[in-house]
Design brief:
Family: Belongs to the V-ATPase 116 kDa subunit family.
Number of helices: 20
Order of helices and strands: EHEHHHEEEEHHEEHEHHHHHHHHHHHHH
Number of strands: 9
Distance between the termini: 23 Å
GO cellular component, one term: proton-transporting V-type ATPase, V0 domain
Coiled coil: 184-211
Number of domains: 5
InterPro entries: V-ATPase_116kDa_su
Keywords: Coiled coil, Ion transport, Membrane, Transmembrane, Transmembrane helix, Transport
Radius of gyration: 37 Å
Length: 639
């Protein structure tokens, strides 16, 4: 549930601002909103200090093996790393300078600009040129010596040497190369020394990596100091008083009142208004707690004035996850990885592991119902027969037939098929096309129908919830939500008719007419008819969108089916190799890659489609904007 909040304003003596903030921070129950734009030298200094420590932390490599740290404290480590970074920067600059010099002038051999200048003082001129190799290179002074040295990035390099009072002139175009700042030997030595310094720096950074935890603690302290200064700078103040404002969970206001009385603060507590940007603090039940991990990953939160849909989101996300991944083996693999990680991290938050247990369990159950285990079939691997629960006599017949119905093909065993066919024929609501004509016949329409059923149930929950909310607010637009609910069911029947061949019930058209009338009459409150009249003509487009919302759920079938098809296709291609040890080994290597790719695609499908159906289609039906931001109390990082 979304925790009720109170808007609180605290006034204290400006001379006691720091002590008051320390007290408030130690409580950790107030989300502070600045009353003015935080600025100031103290804030800038704290920000720079935090950035300094952050940079040091990012510089230190991760420790691959456990190693003993040095005797240095955290601040000493930060200072040493900063000095090392300066040494590394100078060394990198030296290497860059040396590389530029060598790249341009190394072609001239052991060139020394001091020697060239010494020759020039004695009347011997040396000039360096670069030109295209295929073009002519001519000097006006026929006695000048032209020495080609080779090609560089600027072309064919030559040196022109002559005696006289001035350098020899060229009669053809060429690029003049100025003398380097240093000799080639200097650049080589510079580079060699800089590389040695870099190696020493990297070695020392590797040694200091064992102290990374100390730097992390320093960053927490620096971050706390910055948050403290930011909060202080955001307070309103006069010569005598200072004020701070924010939000506090309603259940903890008593603590704030007690502290305010003891500290001599003036305290005002009021209910937030619709205009207030109130943070959202979600309180999870045992059922919805696994959603905490998913919300953190996606980075979304309902607005304070919206509703908490965690439980519904979790239930349907589990179903969508299972249908997209859809394989018992994949579910078992995820479960094994989760159990291993849990064993290695026993003190980690349980919500993430609970979430994964639920996803793994749902995937395994759906895989069992769907008879999917790495896409194997008994004709390729005989032992896979025993993985299909429908082959066991102890399974109740209605459950067996239900499991066979949800699969993409009918049973292949003739005797089992006849029993299953008779069971399907008893359901008169399905069109004739839903009854398989022969053993092993395709029945993909069954899964598609199941997707549409999921759609109408999911969207019905959204619309009914929206109706209840608006009715409680005494908002006349709740009748429009009744219209959207009726429209949703009409679109469900229309989708079944157009895609699966169901007959459209006689009451479908009158149902749609009633829905349309309700939408036209109640979509816009009478008080806002002048401002929002344009939304009435837009209803036609929104009605079409409601059809696409229902159709959209068929993506669960398409994505899940694609993964199963890939696995089955490769199993079929590689099945001739299963007869020998070498063949089995080769096929196993290929299948390992294929299933790895399949798992990656399935997880991408979950990230795109399972999340979308909850945050878009379902949320649209509930008018849920996910406009919230997390409650972040003023407190120390260590708390």
């Amino acid at each position: 549930m979304i925790t009720p909040m109170k808007k609180v304003t605290i006034i204290c003596l400006d001379s006691e601002r720091k002590a008051s903030l320390e007290t408030l921070r130690s409580m950790g129950i107030m989300h502070v909103t600045p009353l003015k734009n935080p600025t100031g030298n103290a804030l800038n200094s704290a920000r720079n200090d935090m950035n300094r420590v952050q940079k040091v932390l990012e510089t230190l490599p991760d420790v691959k093996k456990k190693a003993e740290g040095s005797s240095l404290n955290g601040e000493a480590v930060v200072e040493e790393v900063q000095k090392l970074l300066q040494v590394r920067k100078r060394a990198e600059d030296d290497i860059s300078e040396a590389n530029n010099g060598l790249m341009r002038y190394e072609v001239f051999g052991n060139l020394d600009p001091d020697s060239v200048r010494a020759l020039e003082s004695r009347g011997v001129f040396v000039r360096l040129y670069a030109s295209e190799a295929k073009k002519a290179f001519e000097v006006e002074d026929k006695e000048a010596l032209v020495i080609p040295f080779g090609e560089s990035g600027e072309g064919l390099c030559r040196a022109v040497i002559n005696r006289g009072e001035s350098p020899a002139k060229l009669s053809t175009p060429a690029t003049v190369l100025p003398l380097p700042a240093h000799s080639i030997s200097h650049y080589r030595t510079l580079k060699e020394n800089a590389e040695k310094k870099l190696a020493l720096v990297e070695n020392r950074l590797s040694e200091l990596a064992a102290d990374k935890k100390k730097v992390q603690d320093c960053l927490k302290e620096a971050s706390d100091a910055y948050t403290f200064e930011e909060t202080s700078a955001g307070m309103l103040s006069s010569n005598l008083l200072a004020a701070i404002q924010g939000f506090c969970p309603a259940l903890r206001v008593k603590e704030l009142e007690t502290t305010a009385k003891a500290s001599g603060w003036a305290l005002r507590v009021e209910d937030p208004t619709d205009e207030d940007n109130v943070p959202t603090l979600l309180t999870y039940s045992k059922v919805s707690r696994p959603m905490q991990m998913l919300y953190d990953i996606i980075g979304i939160a309902p607005g304070y004035h919206e509703v908490d849909v965690s439980s519904v989101f979790l239930v349907f996300f589990s179903i969508f996850f299972a249908m997209i991944v859809g394989d018992v083996a994949y579910g078992l693999l995820f479960l094994a990885i989760t159990l291993y990680v849990r064993k290695k991290n026993p003190n980690s938050k349980s919500s993430g592991f609970s979430f994964m247990y639920l996803m793994c369990g749902a995937t395994i159950v759906w895989g069992i119902f769907n008879g999917s285990f790495l896409g194997l079939k008994p004709e390729w691997a005989g032992w896979s027969y025993y993985l299909d629960f429908t082959n066991y006599a102890w399974l109740p017949e209605p459950v067996r037939h239900a499991m066979q119905w949800i699969r993409t093909s009918a049973p292949t065993d003739p005797q089992v098929f006849e029993s299953y066919k008779a069971w399907v024929q008893d359901f008169k609501i399905f069109p004739e096309s839903f009854v398989p004509g022969e053993a092993g016949a395709s029945q993909m329409t069954h899964v598609q129908f199941f997707c549409f059923c999921l759609a109408v149930v999911h969207l019905t929950i959204a619309h009914v919830w929206n109706i209840i909310i608006r009715f409680k607010r005494k908002d006349s637009t709740f009748m429009a939500q009744v219209g959207w609910l009726l429209c949703c069911w009409f679109m469900f029947m229309l989708a079944n008719n157009m895609v699966l061949g169901f007959a459209l019930p006689g009451f479908a058209i009158p149902l749609f007419v009633v829905a349309a009338v309700l939408l036209v009459l109640f979509s816009v409150p009478p008080s806002r008819l002048k401002q929002d009249w344009i939304s009435i003509p837009m209803l036609a487009l929104n009605i079409v969108n409601s059809f696409t919302d229902v159709i959209s759920y068929i993506r669960l079938f398409a994505v899940g089916m694609s993964g199963a098809a890939i696995a089955e296709a490769f199993n079929g291609m590689l099945s001739p190799l299963f007869g020998s040890f070498v063949g089995v080994f080769g096929a196993a290597v290929i299948l390992l890659f294929v299933h790895g790719l399949n798992i990656a695609l399935a997880l991408m499908g979950v990230a795109v489609h399972a999340v979308r159906l909850n945050t878009l289609e379902f949320s649209n039906g509930l008018d849920l904007q996910w406009s919230g931001y997390a409650f972040s109390p003023f407190s120390k990082n260590k708390n």
